[in-house]
C-alpha cells in the first residue's frame, strides 16, 4: 500500500468509527502546525492498525477503551466511548471492559473512566 492508499483507507475507517462530524471538525481545525500529525494518525492508527482484518471494530473499540482508561487519557477515552455507537460495542460491553480494567490498571483510574462513561451514556440515552 502506498501512503496515499493508507491515508484514504485510514480516513474511511476513521469516519466509520468516529463519525463524519468528528472527522470534519478535526479537518476544519487542522493547521500547518498539526497537519503532519493528523496525516500520521490517519495513516498509521486508522489506515494501518484500525483497518487490519484480525479484529472487529467492536473488539478494537473495547481494547482502545481499556487502554485509554488505564492510561487516564480522558479526552480520547470520551471520544472512543462516544464512537461505540458506530463500532457495535454496547454500554454493557464497556462496563465489562472497565470492570476488567479496574483489576489490571487500578480502581482510581477506572473510577474516573466509569464516571465518564456513565455521563456519556446518560447524555446519549436519557
Explain how this protein is built.
With 126 residues, the protein is an all-alpha fold. Helix 7 (91-105) runs antiparallel to helix 8 (107-124). The chain is globular, with a radius of gyration of 15 Å. It is 81% helix and 0% strand.
Name the beta content range: under 5%
Number of helices, counting only DSSP H or I runs of 4 residues or more: 8
Oligomer: single chain
Calculate the terminal CA-CA distance, rounded to whole Å. Answer: 44 Å
Radius of gyration: 15 Å
Q: In the CATH hierarchy, what is the superfamily of the largest domain?
A: AhpD-like
Q: Per CATH, which architecture of the largest domain?
A: Up-down Bundle
- For the secondary structure, the number of strands is 0
What count of structural domains? 2
CATH fold assignment of the largest domain: AhpD-like
Shape: globular
Domain Carboxymuconolactone decarboxylase-like: 36-119
Protein name: 4-carboxymuconolactone decarboxylase
GO molecular function: 4-carboxymuconolactone decarboxylase activity; peroxiredoxin activity
Keywords: Lyase
Amino acid at each position: 500500500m502506498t501512503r496515499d492508499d493508507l491515508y484514504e483507507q485510514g480516513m474511511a475507517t476513521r469516519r466509520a468509527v468516529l463519525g463524519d462530524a468528528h472527522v470534519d471538525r478535526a479537518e476544519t481545525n487542522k493547521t500547518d502546525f498539526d497537519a503532519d500529525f493528523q496525516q500520521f494518525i490517519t495513516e498509521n492508527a486508522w489506515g494501518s492498525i484500525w483497518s487490519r482484518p484480525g479484529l472487529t471494530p467492536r473488539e478494537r473499540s473495547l481494547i482502545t477503551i481499556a487502554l485509554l482508561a488505564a492510561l487516564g487519557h480522558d479526552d480520547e477515552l470520551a471520544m472512543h466511548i462516544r464512537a461505540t455507537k458506530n463500532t457495535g460495542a454496547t454500554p454493557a460491553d464497556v462496563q465489562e471492559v472497565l470492570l476488567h480494567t479496574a483489576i489490571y490498571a487500578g480502581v482510581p483510574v477506572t473510577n474516573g473512566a466509569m464516571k465518564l462513561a456513565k455521563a456519556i451514556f446518560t447524555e446519549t440515552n436519557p
